[in-house]
Specification:
heterodimer, A: 257 residues, alpha/beta, Rossmann fold, 2 domains, 5-stranded parallel sheet, 11 helices, 42% helix, globular, B: 348 residues, alpha+beta, 8-stranded mixed sheet, 4-stranded antiparallel sheet
Chain lengths: 257, 348
């Protein structure tokens, strides 16, 4: 029997679910290999039982927390799907601005007005693994479709997918990309960021913003010093680290300028 | 070795004829740097440009390649090797990169013959070009300032215009006859101009290793516990850039990809790098080189000790790519000279 899969969206933009729909050439193959039983972006039917749960978005409300625990009770495999689910993503920027209840209440009031304060409880934005155990992770904002297909393939053949415990620099070199730091002095997170995206941003002359998450053993002190030597002000470096990696910096204990 | 002379126009005409019949690659501009890429017209080529991001190695040992395709349906699995023997003309290959290919030959086309590499290598036509160094070049320290072989034809730019052309192989001789029809036999005058070019090239090289290359295996052997490694490991990103741009590195990873219906698949080989934290990790999670310093020691010994000891020549060609690519300025020459100074200091 085909494994069943469900897609769940937490705090995020649902762009990663769209990344799956963009696998146009492979979509029929995917659907003939797994049975999608719940997918808000693509279908109206739903089911309460499933083997694989794709979790998109970060966990940032008490309701999120309750819901993800229920999913963990049902799913055999939980896949953290996209930057928000994998590392907290952009949502975690707010963690770096304050964490006490007053801070959140103040934010809610600004966003939703006095009535909303009661109805939109929120907490620190966390990746899925901070709340329940996660089996597989596909990071990235959005996820890379090549890696998505590779993970599906790995689940189907029963092997552990590659983890890409190496930086984006590897993929820039494999692509013969001119280094945006070396040649243009730009502020790039590539040397400390997990690869697997094919270095798509530097390959098009942009910089890596670190969306796939800081490597567990990245040389952050040396990286920050290198960026500073290229004339980047400390505050810019700090913001660049916090952009996609606010939770990750806290998790890994990365000192920031 | 036979010597000829050809002017720019004659060279461009010959290259146009080659481009009409072959896949021709050469250094081309990419932003402020150069990369080896396919050319449709010789005017795109920058054959004298030094420091392409990747060396021309990628055409005989591609970053990613399919080694075999397999079928999993039917009574028993079937597999078929994928061997690419399409000829390719590599133009603008400098002495350091010609030497780099020879280094890889020792391992992949020597006692053990890698069919995939071998087929591409034998069908790669090498048009070598001499070059002027930039601030990262140090070929004169590692014996690759000048090459006597490893090319089909070798072009040295002459101060009076045009090129001196050396014929390195029978295939090169045939190419010269069939395509480089404007080439005229040359003699002692052109030879002296060639020599003159190399003298200016040698004089322009700013870096040097402070010991004869033959002494390096012993120096590195003795330096296993040197503090130099720790010092540079402190700033190293373990990003692998140095390995990946190296003309002599050949380490790879092999991965199997299976179609979603489980019916077929392919085995792929992808470049790997011994500077990456995961490189020496084995099943069960043990890592034989868990620290950046252990990885630096390994990489640098591969260049000047282990491989040199086994094959009789350093596996660093002085191309300077690793230093250009390293964002924290770790380079072969500085490390070699620090080790040499350390040992001389201890000895005195």
């Amino acid at each position: 029997m085909k494994p069943t899969a469900a897609f769940f969206s937490f705090t995020g933009c649902e762009g990663c679910q769209l990344a799956l729909l963009e696998c146009e050439d492979e979509l029929l193959d995917i659907l003939s290999a797994i049975d999608v039983v719940k997918f808000r972006e693509a279908m109206s039917e739903t089911s309460d039982t499933y083997d694989i749960a794709f979790i998109e978005g970060s966990i940032s409300t008490p309701h999120d927390e309750e819901k993800i625990k229920k999913i963990r009770g049902v799913a055999k495999v939980i896949i953290a799907f996209g930057a928000c689910a994998a590392t907290g993503g952009l949502n975690a920027i707010r963690n770096s601005m304050g964490s006490d209840e007053d801070y959140y209440e103040n934010l809610r009031e600004q966003a939703y007005g006095p009535v909303g304060v009661e109805h939109f409880r929120s907490t620190k934005a966390r990746p899925v693994h901070a709340v329940v155990p996660v089996d597989l992770t596909i990071p990235g904002c959005p996820v890379d479709r090549g890696q998505l297909l590779e993970v599906i393939e790995s689940v189907l053949v029963g092997r552990t997918p590659r983890q890409f415990n190496h930086p984006v620099c590897v993929e820039c070199k494999l692509n013969d990309t001119v280094c945006v730091v070396e040649a243009y002095g730009q502020m790039c997170m590539g040397p400390v960021t997990r690869a697997g995206c094919g270095a798509i941003c530097p390959g098009r002359g942009d910089t890596c913003e670190g969306c796939r998450g800081l490597l567990p053993d990245g040389n952050f002190a040396s990286h920050q010093q290198m960026l500073a030597e290229h004339g980047n002000p400390p505050e810019e470096i700090r913001l660049r680290y916090l952009m996609f990696n606010a939770y990750r910096c806290e998790e890994l204990g990365v000192p920031l300028p | 070795m036979e010597l000829y002379r050809i002017d720019e126009k004659g060279l461009a005409e010959a290259m146009a004829r080659l481009i009409a019949e072959y896949r021709v690659v050469a250094p081309v501009e990419k932003g402020p740097r150069h990369v080896f890429d396919d050319i449709q017209d010789w005017s795109e080529a920058r054959p004298l440009a030094v420091g392409t991001v990747l060396p021309p190695k990628k055409f005989v040992f591609p970053q990613r390649e399919t080694l075999l395709r397999f079928q999993l349906t039917g009574e028993a699995p079937q597999a078929e090797a994928v061997v690419d023997d399409t000829p390719v003309v590599l133009a603008g290959v400098h002495p350091c990169d010609i030497t780099g290919l020879r280094c890889i030959d020792h391992t992949l086309a020597g006692r053990y013959f890698d069919e995939h590499y071998g087929a591409r290598r034998m069908n790669a036509i090498i048009l070598g070009f001499d070059c002027m160094p930039d601030g990262h070049c140090f070929c004169s320290s590692v014996g690759s300032l000048k090459v006597e072989s490893g090319f089909d034809l070798f072009f040295t730019p002459l101060q009076v215009g045009g090129y001196a052309v050396r014929v390195g192989t029978q295939r090169g001789r045939k190419l010269l006859e069939d395509y480089f029809t404007a080439a005229a036999p040359a003699g002692v005058y052109e030879e002296s101009l060639e020599e003159d070019f190399r003298k200016r090239k040698a004089a322009a090289i700013r870096l040097s290793i402070d010991a004869p290359v033959g002494d390096l295996p012993g120096i590195y052997q003795q330096a296993m516990r040197s503090k130099v490694w720790e010092k540079w490991a402190e700033v190293c990103f373990s990003c692998g850039s140095c390995n990946l741009v190296c003309p002599t590195c050949y380490c790879f990873d092999v991965q199997d990809r299976v179609s979603l219906d489980g019916a077929e698949g392919r085995r792929e080989r992808v470049w790997d790098s011994c500077m990456l934290a995961e490189f020496a990790e084995v099943a069960g999670g043990h890592n034989f080189r868990p620290t950046p310093s252990a990885r630096l020691i390994h990489r640098h010994n591969r260049k000047f000790n282990y491989q040199q000891d086994r094959y009789g020549e350093p596996h660093c060609t002085g191309c300077g790519r690793c230093a250009r690519a390293c964002l924290v300025h770790i380079d072969m020459v500085t490390i070699a000279n620090e080790l040499i100074a350390e040992q001389r200091g201890e000895a005195s």
